[in-house]
Prior knowledge:
The complex is a heterodimer of chains A (305) and B (354). Chain A is mainly alpha-helical. Helix content of chain A is 72%, strand content 4%. Chain B is an all-alpha fold. Chain B is built from 15 helices and four strands. In chain B, the strands form two sheets. A two-stranded antiparallel ribbon of chain B has the order 1-4. In chain B, strands 2-3 form a two-stranded antiparallel ribbon. In chain B, a hairpin with a 2-residue loop joins strand 2 (151-152) and strand 3. The model of chain B is unreliable at 350-354 (pLDDT under 50).
Amino acid sequence: MEIFFQQVVNGLSLGGIYALIALGYTMVYGIIELINFAHGDVYTLGTFFSLAILSAIGVSGEVHGPALIGIVALAVLSAMLLCGVTGVLIERLAYRRLRNAPRLAPLITAIGMSFILENVMQLWRGPSPVPFPQVIPNPSASFGGVVVSAKQVLVVGLAVVMMAALQVFIYNTKLGKAMRATAQDRDAAQLMGININTTIALTFLIGSALAGAAGFVSGVYYGTTWFFNGFEAGLKAFTAAVLGGIGNVAGAMLGGFLIGLVEAVATQYIPGGAQWSNVVVFSVLVLVLIFRPSGLLGESLPEKV
Amino acid sequence: MPARRRAAVTIIAIGVALLAFPFVDRNNAQIDFMANAGAFILLALGLNIVVGFAGLLDLGYAAFFAIGSYSYAMLASQQFGIHIPFWVMLFVASGIAAIFGILLGAPTLRLRGDYLAIVTLGFGEIVPQTFLNLEKYTNGPNGISSLDQPSLFGKAFGFSATPYYYVTLVLIALGIVVASNLQNSRLGRAWMAIREDELAARHMGINTTAAKLSAFALGASFSGLAGVVYAAKLNLVSPDEFQFNVSVLVLSMLVLGGMGNIAGVIIGSFVLSFINSFLLPQSTSLAHAAGLVNLDFTNYRFMLYGVILVLMMLFRPEGLIPSRQRKAEFHEALSDPTLAAQEQAEYSGAAAAP
């Protein structure tokens, strides 16, 4: 039983990262019905951006005391800002022109953008895994044999805080209302005086910024990254978004944690373990789409003619 | 009909040139390149049926290529002591691939376009991973090697690429005939109707389930053929040959050449193979000669695919050599008077001709 609960703890921290990435997928899909394939790579960029910031200010190991908070805040915020800007640029360059094109056209450009970003990162930091400094001291506490480390608390805590903030933003601010209106009916929203382009750009800004935060967190959590990291994480996060009900912010969070749990438990209990975890996650995706295509929290919409 | 005669002359000229190629150019490396390019043309022709004709964006097409290759590796080698001849395996493997096309296609039938893309991508990840993990049967990451040599009239193919080149040539010719006949068949028209509007197609009485499944099956069978030839020529299969980037490579070939148009697809796929195998290594050695020792363009070929996908979709989504329907689809014929007029002229011309 201890092993099971340990895997639950591990799964929740894994899920926190997936949930943060899944939010970006779900927001973008909600507003322009595009699977933003490049989103996983924006997440990896987040790790590289925060790594660059940390090396720029000369941090290469554990930091203690009040400086820690400052440094973590600096790294997270700058990764979020840079990723947010990247996301807006991607939307401007690759997706905006195709907003009224057949649906598959922007999906294909999104795959193209993903390949371009991966290669830019490969050019920048090389093809091998890059170590990430262990900034955060990592004491752990044991609860009846189940070990919880400070990093895990950080991952889950940050994910929950960001999601709560996002929820407040979407439901309690004017810009959030504009976003919801645009998602519901773009033309009607435009007639009501909402600037569609700004609203969509804002969606990309926020979604990509969350991916940037996830990028920093994953750097700290795994202690390493490489240019291709975002492909798999992106796929799993997308699975999470679909599982929760795409377009639904709370669903993305739920889905993220569930996928993390499924992966951790599958790694533990399926013979051969880790090798099969991807197969398990993608099978979940296929099953959800077949039996409940609108996800756990999504509402099913009739097909538009 | 001068236009038709000109086309026939062109086709015969290209055919003769291709048949004569190994006699003119005795460099085995280049014939080998041509045979590999041929395998990718087969893949592109197959994917074109699924994506170009039926409009089902399959992002895991490499899975069927893997299934074709592994079928040959398991049924024609020392692995299990089964030795089915190469020529029989061409049929067997394309059959197996077609069956998997149906098996993997069936769950996606109800899904909308972009969800279908992601599920096929999932299958594209699951299949090679399964081959990697079933170490007992597939030797895991090492793959299966020393596959049976094909032979014709008792003469083994050996290490020369020339016989493989001719085999792919014949298969491509067959593939072109099959694909173009399919395109003009009842089934082909059903695919196009589904691509343009699935709901409307269903209401017109098209059995969309059967049409979609046959697109998956026929598309997969092409990659089964390509897999057998590729595996036999390489004499080895391993799971890392069938990653996601192979699926994207084949998709880029389609997007570059023009989805839905057979000639376009062939040219797109040849051009990309050429860039991959000649242009990038050549520019790398040029760069090295110029003193840029650390520059290796071949490492950035995926950047190139990405750029192709983005630029083509933004500026010429119908591809270099588009099919008329696709062009109309992307440029909305009804709102474009010149295109509508052209369409009208061609239609009435075609109606008057016979």
